[in-house]
Design a protein that fits this description.
It comes from Cylindrobasidium torrendii FP15055 ss-10. By secondary structure, the protein is mainly alpha-helical. The chain has helices at about 5-25, 35-60, 65-75, 85-100, 105-115, 130-135, 150-155, 170-175, 190, 195-215, 220-240, 240-250, 270-275, 280-290, 310-330, 335-350, 355-365, 375-385, 405-410, 430-435, 440-450, 465-475, 485, 500-510, and strands at about 255-260, 265, 415-420, 425-430, 490, 495-500. Among the domains are: about 5-135, no CATH class; about 485-510, no CATH class. α1 (about 5-25) packs parallel to α5 (about 105-115), α8 (about 170-175) packs antiparallel against α16 and α11 (about 220-240) crosses α15.
Length: about 500
């Protein structure tokens, strides 16, 4: 379409339908944790599509082409000049006649894929979209129920200057301290100031942010973290982070500090020994060339070099403090998940190796959830919902399902055959029609007409045709059709066999 107004109308329609689809998804009552995560991810996908279309729509309203087109159709040179209007109308009609489903075709498929409910039974357990969502989580995370912090625990235990190496449960307890203040306050200042701690706390924060985004797709984690980072910057600039100020005091006032090497020495002898090293000489030369004051090697407490640029240690200290503050902030929102993780670890520690293996095998199998007891009304509603979808009204096969359409056409089951002798009963298909001449319904109809159900009347379905054929056979001397009464044999309750006429006479007399 070349009309910007039609494109805007279509975009508005798609946004409104996405809004209704979002309401449908959010109104679902998830039966499990997995269903809740899937619904939220589907809702997040719809929100992304709404956002993209809103940006596109806003751009079209600001486009000058819209103003030009509006002027072209609203201000003709003459009041009676409607050539532009009819030209656009013809283009619209031509487009819709050529592409009747162009507006809703692809969009309908997209909307149906988002609204389709997955993972409701064993058949849908491995739906393609749900499988993609499940791949976002590791096996230890169990679809976002628990945190997988084993790698972070291993890194924590290998930090320099960490003398106490806790177990995994004790490590989770240390993270739970985020409710009472910044995490890892138990570490000495030397450990928190190392490069190992900076790398550890950065990886921990990255994992927590990733986990929060995967388990809470409808929450804007980036905005929350940006607010937390702004709060940290204000606290850092104001000097309100006392625990990191103490580390800075150690940098400048405790021990013997070498500005050239950016390192602190606890003993005078060690400090004096390093003065002749190549690293110190290069650092001293660099300081002198930059015009900064160097440390006094003869003094007991040398004055640190002043610099307008932050040192590597200061940058490391700020990064460590920043990621510690942000990780503490996000852990405060994951306290319940952290508690569940601890409970799960304690439970697994109490299992034997065989029980753990059996548990893994059971988790690999699809779960069969026992339905709650239902009353009669719910059972009737469920039966109505479980009715087989059969819009073509095809006959049911041996498995209770509609037969294939090609088999339906092969046997001609779509052709109707009506029999007036059988009270206008309709038989579907030639085979059923031919079989009914030997069935009780047709035999009863022939008896009601006083005619025998012999092969002479095969294929005769009209009453007048049957009577006319009987009269013709009578005139031709075919008396056997009237001797049917003596040919037909009946059996009484005692097992005696009589012809039909004798049987009816004895029954009238009350003998039988």
């Amino acid at each position: 379409m070349d009309s910007i107004f039609e494109n805007q109308r279509q975009t508005h329609e798609e946004i409104e339908r996405f809004d209704r689809a979002l309401s449908t998804i959010l109104s679902r009552n998830p039966a499990s944790h997995e269903s809740r995560v899937q619904n939220e991810h589907h809702a997040a996908q719809i929100l992304d599509r709404i956002h993209a279309r809103a940006i596109e729509l806003n751009a079209t309203y600001a486009d000058d082409a819209r103003k030009s087109e509006l002027e072209a159709i609203s201000a003709p040179p003459q009041p009676t000049d409607l050539s532009e209007f009819y030209a656009r109308l013809s283009r619209l009609q031509e487009h819709h006649s050529k592409y009747p489903d162009a507006v809703v075709g692809g969009f309908e498929l997209e909307l149906m894929s988002l609204l389709e409910e997955h993972n409701q039974d064993e058949e849908d357990a491995y739906a393609e979209e749900d499988l993609a969502i499940s791949l976002l989580f590791s096996g230890e995370e169990a679809y976002g129920k628990y945190l997988d912090l084993y790698a972070n625990h291993s890194t924590y235990c290998n930090i320099k200057h960490v003398t106490r190496r806790p177990g995994y449960l004790q490590y989770l307890d240390l993270l739970l301290s985020a409710q009472n203040g910044p995490i890892h306050q138990e570490l000495p200042k030397e450990a928190r100031f190392t490069k190992d701690f900076e790398s550890y706390i950065t990886d921990l924060y990255s994992y927590l942010v990733s986990f929060a985004k995967r388990t809470q797709p409808l929450v804007d984690i980036d905005v929350q973290q940006q607010d937390a980072e702004d709060a940290f910057n204000n606290l850092w600039d104001a000097g309100d982070l006392k625990e990191w100020e103490e580390v800075a005091k150690v940098d400048s006032g405790g021990g013997i500090w070498c500005a050239a090497c950016q390192k602190q020495y606890s003993k005078q002898t060690v400090y004096d020994a390093h003065l002749t090293s190549k690293k110190h000489i290069k650092g001293q030369t660099r300081l002198e060339e930059s015009g900064m004051s160097a440390a006094n090697p003869n003094g007991d407490t040398p004055t640190p070099a002043l610099s307008n640029q932050p040192s590597t240690m200061q940058v490391r200290r700020r990064n460590s403090a920043r990621h510690t503050y942000l990780a503490t902030n996000i852990l405060a929102n994951l306290v319940s998940t952290l508690n569940d993780t601890k409970s799960n670890v304690e439970r697994r520690f109490s299992l034997t190796a065989r029980e753990r293996e059996q548990e893994l095998l059971e988790q690999a199998k699809p779960k069969a959830v026992a339905p709650p007891p239902k009353d009669d009304k719910e059972e009737e509603e469920e039966e109505q919902e479980e009715r087989i979808y059969n819009p073509l009204k095809l006959p049911l096969g041996w498995d209770g399902k509609p037969i294939p359409f090609w088999l339906y056409k092969l046997h001609g089951l779509g052709v109707e055959y009506r029999c007036e002798i059988c009270s206008d009963h309709v038989y579907m298909g030639r085979k059923n029609f031919e079989r009914h001449f030997q069935e009780s319904r047709h035999a009863f109809g022939m008896r009601a007409l006083g005619l025998p159900n012999t092969k002479h009347f095969h294929e005769i379905v009209g009453i007048q045709d049957a009577l006319a054929l009987a009269e013709k056979l009578k005139q031709e001397g075919r008396h056997e059709i009237f001797e049917m009464e003596t040919m037909e044999e009946l059996e009484d309750e005692e097992g005696n066999v009589y012809n039909r006429k004798t049987y009816e006479d004895l029954k009238k007399q009350g003998i039988i």
